[in-house]
Amino acid sequence: MMFYGDTSVTSASISAAGTSVDQQYFASINSDDVNNKSPNGVKSQKLPSRFDDSIPPLNGQRREVFDVVAPATLPPGFKFRAQSLDGRTFTATVPPEGIAAGDSFTVLPMPDEVYPSKSNAPVWHWRDGTFDVFSLGKFHPSFWSALVCPQLATGQIMTRMGLNFFGSHTHSRHTFKWIFLMIALYNIILVIIDAFMPLYYYKGTKFVIMNTGAWMRLSLTLVLIIYTVFIVAKTRNFVRWKYSIPSTSYDGRLEDICCSLFCTSCTIARMNRHTADYEKYKADCFSETGLERSGPREV
């Protein structure tokens, strides 16, 4: 465990909010270097997870807070690194009044620190503009995959961001597969409809439209469009939250929906470029993350 001071390792416990499953977190501090107080009498304990609704939301997302149990008496402003069992780390700073061994204090890290990026994605701003679709070249997959099949392109982004089928952050690794199966099933159903309920036929010289087949196709397509806008908006909202990107309008969630509805492919391509380090990893249209096999599984 690394610190901002010349300290080494014992143990303490931290708990976090923000996921549906409680997780236990651990920090490390050298008792000999902090007021010569031993933390051996402090028992590791799992504190309840929580969101702090008194803190203003960031990009429409409730703020995640961490309750840290001090393993020793710590001076004001003392900083140390806390690391979770799933590899997430953040900086814990002792409040101005200091903290006694066994007492807890609340830490409010930024999302990009709690969910560290494994790419070179910039923080506080987008990598480039919405319409810079050819910034990586006219034939780069980041745009063409979003244009040809926006659902699969979004599924790749969701997989490398750890989002599930409904756009919630669960560290899911199978989102692309589920979306691929959904698209495959959608097309199979359309083929069956065309085979047994054709959209039209000729009765002599009269052209007749089959309402049943037409309405079924329309209904399925409408469901797919709604789902596409939903996951693109959810993914864009999470990307903005993770990288602390402010919205350009009064309501960030409304901005996410409008971009997803009226500029779907360009919005997906922009998220592609922002969340992937294409200078280090090549694009792969057929992988679950949209990156070559050696690329990070989750960014």
Please provide a brief summary of the model.
This protein has 299 residues and is of the alpha+beta class. It has helices spanning 111-114, 141-148, 150-161, 175-196, 211-242, 252-262, 264-275, and strands at 13-16, 23-27, 66-69, 79-84, 89-93, 104-107, 200-203, 206-209.
Task: Give a description of the structure.
There is one protein chain. Strand 4 and strand 5 (89-93) form a beta hairpin. Residues 1-49 have low confidence and may be disordered. It contains seven helices and eight strands. A six-stranded antiparallel sheet has the order 5-4-2-1-3-6, with no helix packed on it. Strands 7-8 form a two-stranded antiparallel sheet. With 299 residues, the chain is an alpha+beta fold. It is elongated and about 90 Å long. It has two domains: 1-116, no CATH class; 141-275, no CATH class. Helix 6 (252-262) packs across helix 7. It has helices at residues 111-114, 141-148, 150-161, 175-196, 211-242, 252-262, 264-275, and strands at residues 13-16, 23-27, 66-69, 79-84, 89-93, 104-107, 200-203, 206-209. Residues 30-47 have a biased composition (Polar residues). The chain crosses the membrane at residues 178-202, 214-233. Residues 30-52 are annotated as: Disordered.
Which features would summarize this protein structure in a list?
299 residues, alpha+beta, two-stranded antiparallel sheet, 7 helices, 34% helix, 12% strand, elongated, disordered N terminus
Series of secondary-structure elements, N-terminal to C-terminal? EEEEEEHHHHEEHHH
Enumerate how many helices there are, as a single number: 7
Globally, the shape reads elongated
* Alpha carbon gap, first and last residue: 22 Å
